[in-house]
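Take one record.
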Amino acid sequence: MQIVSPLVKLKFIALFQSAPLLIHAPGRINLIGEHTDYNEGFVMPAAIRMGLNFAFGVSDQSQSSIYSLKYHQLHVLDLSNPAKVETPVWVNYFLGIIDRLNTRGLKLDNFNCVFDGDLPTGAGLSSSAAMECGFVFGLNKLFNLGLTRLEMIYMAQWSEHNYAGVQCGIMDQFASMMGKANHAFILDCRSLEYEYLPLELGDYTLLLCDTNVKHTLASSEYNTRRNECQQGVKLISKKYPIVKSLRDVTQPMLQVCKEMLPEQIYNRCRFVVEENNRVVEAAHDLKQGDLAAFGKKMFLAHEGLSALYQVSCSELDFLVQFAKQETGVLGARMIGGGFGGCTLNIVHKNNSAPFLDSAKAAYHLKFGIEMSSYVVQPGAGTDVLIE
């Protein structure tokens, strides 16, 4: 359980004059395994201690109210009509959850909610998944709905797809709901089987370097990559009918099919096949406590994302190349969909401050942009807060 920040509780009491139920929902990082989720492959996320806090209580009014401390906005809603709204946009993450609960025939009474957190938006830490998971978890607790964590994960993903309009994989919601303190986990995105892995960092720490850029082709190219992978599956399955997704393709199979694949399609497939193998091997590294071997795979993953999958950008490539030359850095790579966002770095604690200072100065000199940074620590999944 997480320790509560007093802000949401104090604001809830000030607004609604009652003591609330308190919930924490974390953000997440993905250590390795990028663009493999929608290919039914393997990913290795970890929940982090940064996240969102929620305060819930039953309302004696004829309506429900949700207050955002970040935006200083109060939204009143009708539980019987959770239709998508134009503004405020953040409410839609919650309305989608209410729609799912209504569809399931689960009885909700009117409620009050206040939420806030320390997750930066746009940094690739899945603040949207934390919103969805914390909200559905809190309602499940408040009204004793009896939902399992997996049922809540699917509801959160549905809300993201249908109310936020983002066709995400299952990883973000799964990581926010199922995280374990001081652990990552390997997740099979086909079967949803998972295994916790010790994330014993010792003298090292996880640092995020935020490029503070998001290139406009991010969303369109994401869909293009999905289509290119599907094209690869279609062509490879003519030779190997057993292949239903790139998850089923081995490196020898890919080599046999190389001549029949357009070069760009081959490169996309090659990256996904290699990345799936890297995730499985990286899980072994963590079990052995071999952070150095893990870090080398991070560098290799970035090379593949940049050269084969082509979802990196000059800013991300610069920061990874800079990290590779710095003392005390075991590994670095871009994380997230690409074309901007953050790099994840494993850095010795004694080197973390000089590394960040040097990286910020070099990045600003090269691009004229201020680089942000965050220290992230693996944390627990969505749960009740203790005071």
Summary: DSSP finds eleven helices and twelve strands in the chain. The mean pLDDT is 94. The first strand starts at residue 21 and ends at 32.
